[in-house]
Specification:
By secondary structure, the chain is α/β, with parallel strands linked by helices. It contains 11 helices and 8 strands. The chain has 2 domains: 225 residues, Nucleotidyltransferase, domain 5 (2-Layer Sandwich); 54 residues, no CATH class. It starts with a strand and ends with a helix.
Length: 307
């Protein structure tokens, strides 16, 4: 039994700021869940984030208020928090004085999303993300599946989210089927129905996304995807609170790193994760980089054999 934790990075709308949309799944054996969860918690605890949610997009950004604090790196965590909070209070007062409702609202949202991380300098936050990426990269029994869509190369009106979900589901299902076939060839005792390799999808709880994924998954169970029948992924996706589920946070990290690789050429995090994408016959088959009819020579397309 495999759990596949899903998350996306970027938005599927073509007009949005991001050029790519990435949907990614982190698949781990159910029996290995606890050990991996413990390892992730240990890394988070080292950075004072044991009870905090890892939201990579907010962790990776600059906090200008930290840069205005003299000798910030030399302060202890409590002093850092106090100093950053004082700077943020000043910014909130300024925004309120300007009667800029939009700016004030945006600042409040940003500060709430990043509150857990303000005791960490930018290099320390990078070390946190690198440590988590290295941990995932060491999971020999884990597999990553992703669809990275260059939105500028899609047909007008294409449902980018649905197409990406179909790709990830199909690749995860193929992995389960292939693994089962390999096991049956090596152990005849496993050739009964009860030994079937099964998978379950787990996603962050978002009401709009939940309804859509549930509807799509029911369709896949009934009619299959364009590439395969779906008989090894059980039920519709399970939706959980990402703030309480470390593995969804790991999926967030992997999706972010993948999108930033395609959009900005950032390799630091992605290269640490790349070995975990599913492979078959020496080719990387766990990830697709969709560029339409446009040739692409990126490392993913080369490893996939379509450069």
């Amino acid at each position: 039994m495999y759990f596949c934790y899903l998350d996306e990075s970027g938005t599927p709308e073509v007009a949005a700021q991001t050029s790519h949309f990435v949907l990614l799944g982190v698949a781990i054996p159910a029996a290995a869940w606890h050990a991996k969860d413990v390892q992730v918690d240990r890394i988070k605890t080292r950075f004072g984030l044991k009870e905090a949610e890892v939201h990579t997009g907010y962790i990776a950004r600059r906090f200008p208020e930290q840069e205005r604090i003299p000798s910030f790196d030399k302060l202890d965590p409590i002093a850092r928090r106090q100093a950053v909070q004082a700077e943020r209070n000043i910014e909130l007062v300024r925004a309120a004085a300007l009667k800029s409702t939009d700016k004030l609202k945006a600042l409040k949202k940003l500060y709430a999303k990043t509150q857990d991380y303000i005791h960490l300098s930018l290099p320390e936050r990078h070390q946190l993300l690198q440590g988590l990426a290295d941990e995932v990269g060491s999971w020999q029994d884990a597999r990553l599946f992703a669809d990275a869509v260059d939105k500028t190369k899609t047909a007008p009106g294409a449902d980018i989210f649905a197409l990406a979900f179909e790709q990830v589901v199909s690749r995860f299902h193929t992995f389960l089927s292939t693994r089962e076939s390999n096991r049956q060839r090596t152990d005849t005792a496993q050739q009964h129905a009860g030994a079937a390799n099964l998978g379950l999808l787990i996603e962050d709880n978002n009401e709009t996304v939940a309804k859509r994924l549930t509807r799509l998954m029911r369709q896949f169970h009934s009619k299959g995807t364009l590439w395969t029948q779906i008989d090894r992924i059980i039920e519709t996706p399970l939706f959980v609170d990402s703030s309480l589920t470390s593995m969804v946070q790991i999926a967030d990290l992997c999706a972010y790193a993948t999108r930033r690789f395609f959009e900005n050429g950032e390799t630091d995090l992605f290269d640490r994760l790349f070995p975990r994408f599913d492979k078959s016959g020496g080719r990387v088959v766990g990830i697709r980089h969709y560029t339409g009819a446009q040739p692409c020579s990126c490392k993913v397309c080369q490893a996939h054999g379509r450069a």
